[in-house]
């Protein structure tokens, strides 16, 4: 779905009353029951779990993980994040991304997105879905969860 189609659909949804699918509550409860006993890769290797702990790298690393995850399974994303941390001088952060060979980085993520984050957001990432979707390689699927997590992390930093 393109960003323009997403915007149009989002406006349409906000203006129309949507009806819930038949028996969605039953299906949802079955999924909840199943997930109580089953550990999925996303539980241990989801994008929000792949970032290192220093606060200045959590949100950029989460965005990078999310960009990678749109193309790979969680296990592959986790391995790619570990590889980037080991291969980039100084670890995986905005500065190291800006310094690395573009050909190497293009195999993993968008250097242009890192440049925008550095120049326009002081090395952090945008707070809103709309601003995140302006970054190369970020679409609606990525922007919603990432914006929510970024705002949560920033709120926790203030406490």
UniProtKB/TrEMBL annotation:
Cited Pfam families: HHH (PF00633)
Q: Which InterPro entries match?
A: DNA_glycosylase (IPR011257), HhH-GPD_domain (IPR003265), HhH_motif (IPR000445)
The entry lists its GO molecular-function terms as: DNA binding; DNA-(apurinic or apyrimidinic site) endonuclease activity; oxidized pyrimidine nucleobase lesion DNA N-glycosylase activity
GO process terms (BP): base-excision repair, AP site formation; nucleotide-excision repair
Kindly list the GO CC terms recorded for this protein: nucleus
Q: Which residues form a coiled coil?
A: none
Alphabetically sorted, this entry's keywords are: DNA damage, DNA repair, Glycosidase, Hydrolase
Q: Which domain of life is it from?
A: Eukaryota
Record protein name field:
7529_t:CDS:1
Read off the lineage from the record: Eukaryota, Fungi, Fungi incertae sedis, Mucoromycota, Glomeromycotina
């Amino acid at each position: 779905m393109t960003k323009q189609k997403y915007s149009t659909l989002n406006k349409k949804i906000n203006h129309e009353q949507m009806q819930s699918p038949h028996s969605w509550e039953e299906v949802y409860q079955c999924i909840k029951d199943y997930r109580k006993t089953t550990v999925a890769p996303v539980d241990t290797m989801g994008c929000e779990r792949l970032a290192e702990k220093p606060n200045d790298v959590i949100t950029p690393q989460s965005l990078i993980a999310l960009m990678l995850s749109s193309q790979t399974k969680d296990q592959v994303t986790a391995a790619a994040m570990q590889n980037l941390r080991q291969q980039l001088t100084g670890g995986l952060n905005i500065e190291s991304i800006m310094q690395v060979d573009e050909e190497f980085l293009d195999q993993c993520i968008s250097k242009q997105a890192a440049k925008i984050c550095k120049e326009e957001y002081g090395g952090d990432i945008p707070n809103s879905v709309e601003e995140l979707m302006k970054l190369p390689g970020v679409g609606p699927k990525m922007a919603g969860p990432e914006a929510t997590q970024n705002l949560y992390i920033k709120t926790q930093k203030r406490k």
